[in-house]
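pasting Cytochrome ubiquinol oxidase subunit I for the record, 529 residues
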Amino acid sequence: MDALEIARWQFGITTVYHFMMVPLTIGLGLVVAVIQTLWYRTGKPEYLRMTKFWGKLFLINFIMGVATGIVQEFQFGMAWSEYSRFVGDVFGAPLAMEALLAFFVESTFLGLWIFGWKQLKPGVHLACLWIAVIGSVFSAYFILVANSWMQHPVGVELINGRPVMTDAWAVFTNNTALVAFPHTLFGALAVAGGFLLGIAWYHLWRRRHDGIDTVGADGKVIPGEAAISGRDRTDHTVWIRSLRIGAVVAMVSFAGTALTGDIQGKLMFEQQPMKMAAAEAACHDGTGFSVLSVGNLGSKNCDDIVALIEVPGILSFLANGDFTTEVKGVNSLLGEYQAKYGTTLPDNPIYGDRAGTEIQYVPVMEVTYWGFRMMIGFGGIAAFAALLALWVTRKGTVPASRGLMRLAVFGILAPFGANAAGWIFTEMGRQPFVVAPNPDFAGVDQVFMFTAAAVSPGVSAAEILTSLVVLTAIYAVLLVVEVKLLVKYVRGGVVSAMPELAHAGAAGKGGDDTPPGDGTPGDVLAFAY
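structre below
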């Protein structure tokens, strides 16, 4: 057992799991804020119902994200102490601002929003949600500033072997962060769009399956009403509008991720050429983009890879914006990296038994190549599904097919898969560096750190393995809890987030125009918990 490899597995598992909650929290928070704004401006009951239903799911995901995110900080100290020492002078500022400013604002105003339905004026209550959501966006930016510095270190000087921040403005306006930020936001909105689309499709299908909604001779929906509280004509409006909002958000987000991804790719060719060459399986210099390449699984030799389908000029466009400039391949870059950073790890106690071993500058090609394509593929599938959903529901409801309903629900996972694949590619493609060198002559090229030097020297492989097993087990339990809660409240529909509808319906008052806070005495706590 190697402590470094186990520590990497632990960090990968816990971080990817935590990141499943992050894009949904950011994207769904923005969508809920817009929907509540529509309710505030129009007073229409469907927007109130949408706010409370989607807001309930947003809260479940938010608190689970907080719980799983806390573990990341402990990991740095436990398994990555050398890394923490190396980046501490730089990371202190963005991470402190994330925790003390952004997250403090986010959690405080979210609490006011949760418990302020009756106590606050509608405008103030809406402002609380917007402030909380904006806080989450700033929180994401500060985290991206820290991560982008690892990808492209700027604004520091190397003093006694450690980088010390000398230009905070350069760190916070790192061009890598400025491009990664909108790319991440669009990715988060894509997750939210797919989430709305899949769940709304399920409820529209249920209304047809239960005979509440029917379809006329012209193919248009005829919304009906059921004796069950909350399943009235307004309920139909809730789901069809949620579906169409989700579809539009998903398509716009895919376009946004494609545009920002193109800019991000060009930066990667400049800043981390080996990562992007490996992502394209470009072993040799050229201009062609690999549509499909194959090679020996696990091989460290790039020459084993054969391009079966290749489009000339596209790789040059991705790298430089033209179709003729030759792009360096893995084999050319490998010699440059070895000449600049050495062929073996230094004979230094910090590397332990790994000192003197050969440095693998080529990342795992299977991960970078297919991770890059999974990111684009899952995103494209989600966007196409959204376009198809808009066309299929143009007459006000979804088909009666159970199979299509299940496909729509499972389609929720596609943008999650795109986000996860993108981050796995970004982080694993940087190897063997945990802090990648800055290749810019005006940058700070001497500031870099091999991953082999970042692991805690005083922690054994058995100890890290134990924590890996324990954390993975805890996260598995948390996953079951979150999925069970989400499924419970999704199946319960709007009434699960608005018990006042059931109370009003039982009293024979209807529910369409029931303002918040006029239901059961404990309705605010019911919404929160």
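The CA atoms of residues 26 and 188 lie 6 Å apart.
Residues 3-285+328-502 form one domain.
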